[in-house]
Amino acid sequence: AFMDVLTEPLYILPDCSIFSCRPVQGFCFPFFTPTGRRSYASEIDQIGSKAVLITGCDSGFGFSLAKHLHSKGFIVFAGCLFKDKGEAGSQELDNMKSERMRTIQLNVCNSQETERAVEHVGASLKDPQKGLWGLVNNAGVSTFGDIEFTSMETYKEVAEVNLWGTVQTTKAFLPLIRRAKGRVVNISSMMGRMGSPARSSYCITKFGVEAFSDCLRYEMHPQGVKVCVVEPGNFIGATNLYTPERIKAIAEKMWKEIPEIVRKDYGRKYFDEQIAKMESYCNSGSPDTSPVINSITHALTSSSPYARYHPMDYYWWLRVQIMTHMPAAISDRIYIY
Ligand SMILES: NC(=O)c1ccc[n+]([C@@H]2O[C@H](COP(=O)([O-])OP(=O)(O)OC[C@H]3O[C@@H](n4cnc5c(N)ncnc54)[C@H](OP(=O)(O)O)[C@@H]3O)[C@@H](O)[C@H]2O)c1
Questions:
Q1: Radius of gyration of the chain (CA)
Q2: Which of 101, 233, 268, 334 is 20 to 30 A distant from 72 in Cα terms?
Q3: How far is the CA of 333 from the centre of ligand 1 (A)?
């Protein structure tokens, strides 16, 4: 029964209402957290005059976060990949017709668009000398597939958005963030803490985001800027990161591109089994993104935010702890082999 607890996904979030000191974490130990230091009781002042920029607001976490931070009183710059094409997400944000909700065209891989976004945000701030309070690097893409099935082109495409997009956007906005002694919140993943079979192209980008965030946190500490990482578990059911159509399209393209010798060695049966596993993983995620949204909000509003947030259910929290703290001989045996 003990092994079942470790290895069977339990898609249940613990009742966080009893953990009043850390209301936003999916799984937590209140006695490690002195009351009053890390709670909403010590929120930052004057949210209404503070502005945040979020990338990837066309859908998913970014879209919900833009609305949530707006409802809390922030001035929100919502970066959208396809604002210029009038995609539904950016249109819905525009339709709010609020002075505090401003969508901007921003492909995080495009340096010109990034520079234009910095100029636009700088020019829109009431007092540019007071800077921009928050940057949330949320834009991301994902894919899957065994290492031998994944083309170099795919590795580079995912890294371009998740890793280099995060680095480029952060570097561009840091002068404004430093002026505000504000916050950088990077959306990583539980896959930024532990590897997983068939997820290498995604994992390496999120491990990169984690390393970048740690270095940035050390460098920004003397400047008064706080850097936080949010590591969501499986919320795929609630966002557009994977849809059944997308999995099918990735699988078809991948099978065609796999080198002949690899295709023969592994065989179509093994390949189809991997795709089925991915489909069932995607169907198992939590449909409620509020733990992620609350974690990001805490990182932006608490006077004493965490370096890392782990909004995830009990099964994945325990798995991350075991994978990162136990010898590989034990953790691999429990979860991988
Ligand atoms: N959902 C989960 O279970 C989960 C778990 C852990 C971590 N995450 C992370 O959470 C973040 C948000 O993902 P999500 O789950 O909310 O998925 P999502 O609904 O697909 O949101 C990602 C957003 O990023 C946008 N985007 C993609 N490429 C971009 C680019 N080059 N420039 C600017 N925006 C770009 C997408 O635009 P389009 O829709 O127009 O393509 C989309 O709006 C990602 O960093 C992801 O890795 C998600």
A1: 20
A2: 233
A3: 32
